[in-house]
């Protein structure tokens, strides 16, 4: 695991060259078909060399939850281990990792009418006001969420309005379900935040050059999308939507996309700072030395961890 743009995909390929692994993607954006540029999805050549499970499993107008991920990942992990291989879970969606490791509370089903009312209120009042509304009914959940984390604020309010119970009360009844595996938890960690920011800006510029905006135009033609769908809230697509609707300029698209990606990385690192039993690996941003001493040191650490897990 690790923040966006820190080199997880490249390291996973090197790991696969040294250990009998199969990759399971842990990324809430890579699940969507035809969303390739804005998600930095590995290209066909890469996926031919290193196939990934749980990529391209939903259309952009479909929903997918952390509970869905756990239900999909567990049988995959069982199949992989039955083949004598090691499941290698790679991604930056920390909630998916947490739910996989701990289980998840059973929540009431989504209610389209309630959700639409919440989204309508948010459009009028803003997500900070919705965060305050959540704090009034479920302070513990609100305290754990950033006021701009719209998707999770929406879901917490939806749970409360549809069931009369807070999300935190549902989660308090959650039965922890430990994974039936020995687990090594690894995170790529940038030594300097400035290096990660430079990498983020470079990658977003590449996405724009590769045709991110045109990709979104095609998605809007092929699917019945609106900007409040989870797929369209993904960084890059949200800003490109505003650009297509002429709410922001091309320069603002670039500036807001880079800023939003930095915020995503910041949230991911906040998760990881509190993560128990985590082994940090230094991130490497020097693409000219992708097979250099950094990879050798990382693979040595991984090999040692696997030996310890096997007793």
Walkthrough of the structure:
The protein contains 14 helices and 5 strands. The protein is mostly helical and 311 residues long. The protein folds into 2 domains: 8-103 and 185-220 and 258-309, Rossmann fold (3-Layer(aba) Sandwich); 112-172, Histone, subunit A, CATH 1.10.20. Strands 2-1-3 form a 3-stranded parallel beta sheet, sandwiched between helices. It has a two-stranded parallel sheet with strand order 4-5. Helix 6 crosses helix 8 (150-163). It is globular. The mean pLDDT is 91.
Which CATH top level class of the largest domain fits? Answer: Alpha Beta
Number of helices: 14
Shape: globular
List the uncertain runs.
none
Care to give the gist of this entry?
It is built from 14 helices and five strands.
Topology diagram in text:
Blueprint: H1 8-18, E1 21-26, H2 44-49, E2 52-53, H3 66-82, E3 86-91, H4 94-102, H5 112-125, H6 127-137, H7 139-143, H8 150-163, H9 167-172, E4 185-189, H10 193-210, H11 212-222, H12 237-244, H13 250-273, E5 278-282, H14 293-309
Parallel strand pairs: 1-2, 1-3, 4-5
Helix pairs in contact: 3-4, 5-6, 5-8, 6-8, 10-13, 11-12, 12-13
């Amino acid at each position: 695991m690790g923040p966006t743009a820190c080199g997880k995909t490249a390291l996973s390929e090197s790991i696969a060259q040294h250990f009998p692994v199969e990759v399971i993607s842990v990324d809430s954006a890579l699940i969507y078909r035809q969303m390739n540029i804005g998600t930095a999805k590995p290209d066909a050549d890469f996926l031919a060399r290193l196939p990934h499970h749980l990529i391209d499993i939903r259309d952009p107008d479909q929903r997918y939850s952390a509970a869905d991920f756990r239900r999909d990942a567990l049988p995959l992990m069982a199949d992989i281990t039955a083949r004598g291989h090691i499941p290698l879970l790679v991604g930056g969606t920390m909630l998916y990792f947490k739910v996989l490791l701990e289980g998840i509370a059973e929540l009431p089903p989504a209610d389209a009418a309630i959700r639409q009312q919440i989204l309508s209120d948010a459009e009028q009042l803003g997500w900070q006001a919705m965060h305050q509304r959540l704090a009034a009914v479920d302070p513990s959940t609100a305290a754990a969420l950033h006021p701009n984390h719209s998707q999770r604020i929406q879901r917490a309010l939806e749970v409360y309005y549809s069931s009369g119970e807070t999300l935190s009360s549902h989660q308090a009844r959650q039965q922890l379900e430990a994974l039936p595996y020995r687990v090594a938890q690894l995170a790529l960690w940038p030594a300097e935040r400035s290096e990660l920011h430079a990498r983020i800006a470079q990658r977003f510029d590449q996405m724009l050059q590769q045709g991110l905006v045109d990709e979104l135009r095609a998605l809007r033609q092929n699917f019945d999308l609106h900007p409040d769908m989870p797929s369209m809230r993904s960084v890059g697509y949200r800003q490109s939507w505003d650009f297509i609707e002429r709410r922001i300029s091309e320069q603002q698209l670039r500036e807001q996309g880079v800023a939003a990606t930095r915020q995503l990385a910041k949230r991911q690192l906040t998760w990881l700072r509190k993560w128990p039993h985590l082994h940090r690996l230094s991130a490497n941003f020097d693409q000219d030395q992708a097979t250099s001493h950094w990879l050798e040191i990382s693979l040595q650490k991984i090999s040692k961890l696997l030996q310890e897990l096997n007793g």
